[in-house]
Amino acid sequence: xxxxxxxxxxxxxxxxxxxxxxxxxxxxxxxxxxxxxxxxxxxxxxxxxxxxxxxxxxxxxxxxxxxxxxxxxxxxxxxxxxxxxxxxxxxxxxxxxxxxxxxxxxxxxxxxxxxxxxxxxxxxxxxxxxxxxxxxxxxxxxxxxxxxxxxxxxxxx
Length: 157
Fold this sequence. Notes:
This is DNA/RNA non-specific endonuclease/pyrophosphatase/phosphodiesterase domain-containing protein. By secondary structure, the protein is α+β, with helices and mostly antiparallel strands. Helices cover 25% and strands 31% of the residues.
């Protein structure tokens, strides 16, 4: 398997913990649901964001949209994404957009998106953002298009 003996984790787009059955959990390990992700992002901020999304799934979150965008590099014929994104669409029609920067390509928040405060982290200090590599982003049509979306996906009805 390509993921062995290299510097990347198999970053899940939909985490295995979000599924109840053994077969469903096993299926999350296939490449269609995974992308090369830095260990620090996968085991740090991205994992914490997944826990936050899961903890709100039954009471507040109507849907989760996740994926990758941009290409950092290619190893062994597999594209390494520059960024991961996760959008939480809440039952009240509000939403939060998160971008995780892959593999230590630390940038200022303004280079990634228009940073805003989100409920996941009430106080986002510069140190918090740099440590987790996760940015909470305001709505921007260009950013949404870079995810391969139109914006209509953010509606729950």
